[in-house]
Amino acid sequence: xxxxxxxxxxxxxxxxxxxxxxxxxxxxxxxxxxxxxxxxxxxxxxxxxxxxxxxxxxxxxxxxxxxxxxxxxxxxxxxxxxxxxxxxxxxxxxxxxxxxxxxxxxxxxxxxxxxxxxxxxxxxxxxxxxxxxxxxxxxxxxxxxxxxxxxxxxxxxxxxxxxxxxxxxxxxxxxxxxxxxxxxxxxxxxxxxxxxxxxxxxxxxxxxxxxxxxxxxxxxxxxxxxxxxx
Length: 230
Known about the structure:
By secondary structure, the chain is α/β, with parallel strands linked by helices. Helices cover about 50% and strands about 10% of the residues.
């Protein structure tokens, strides 16, 4: 390793540490339940074409340029038809988006979400699947995907296998199962996310976006189901 390369790496690490040190550690401005209500209200405005943030202003851009206080993480699909800020009618700085085809997860994605929870105080994570997801369709079809697409499909296969033999649409069954699988992975991810969930500071919910109607359907809270013994 050259001295120049070593210096660059050290400088990059110092910058990253500095960013973390100056990140907001304030208590979240909303509770998990309040965050959920804001998302539901925003989707309702979107459905009835009563959006309050059709275009963010220059003033809002300047307002959030130096700091951010998002109230929800959206782990969503990279599909161009499912932009979280639009379907939840939010402004700049309100959502912490993590988008990847099939809304799957890995260490890099979990790390991004951990940053939002641990350093920005985000109280809500929504795993957002959607109708007719191409990545899920590929997994259900069982075709050998080219390039790195195969890695995404592989992540979704457990959901496909868990829904085999069920009545209804095979792709939609797998979409829902995949969301639930990722929700459970995040809720139990140690140490940061699992501890926040157990402390009541964080909720992780699944949801499905309907491409035809625009409706976001939120799944039941797994924590509530666990406490009731179901």
